[in-house]
Amino acid sequence: MRSIRIQTPDELHSQVEKALAASAHVFVLFFGREVPNTGNSWCPDCVIAEPHIRKQVSRLDNSVLIEYPVDRKTGGATTYWSSDKLNIRAIPTLVKCANPDGLTKEALVEDDCQDERNLAAFLGLDSRL
């Protein structure tokens, strides 16, 4: 699995396009930005979900995880919270990418990102592994 950290909507679209051209499986993870003094996300659900997401996405050959940190109140990915295209309502949100000009509406949100079976099913993997 290759990880790419982005900070802006422009980067999101360009990185999705590049990743889809080179990789079979591309996902975007919207999560709470890390707090500088702790290094952990301000979002407790994100802290719990992150290792599960990484574990399951890494099971896919030729996969890319695009990481998009979200600030607590303003900035970062907050423009996507109300976007009709993505409809991000909560974090963590893991979105499948289907084409360069946008993301699918398929997503796992909050608690579903913490459950290894839900993640495996979402990714099309055998949940017994």
TrEMBL record:
Residues 10-110 form the Thioredoxin domain. Gene3D superfamilies: Glutaredoxin. This is Thioredoxin domain-containing protein. It comes from the Eukaryota. Belongs to the thioredoxin family. One of its GO terms (cellular component) is cytosol. It holds the Pfam family TXD17-like_Trx. Signal peptide: none annotated. GO terms for molecular function: protein-disulfide reductase [NAD(P)H] activity.
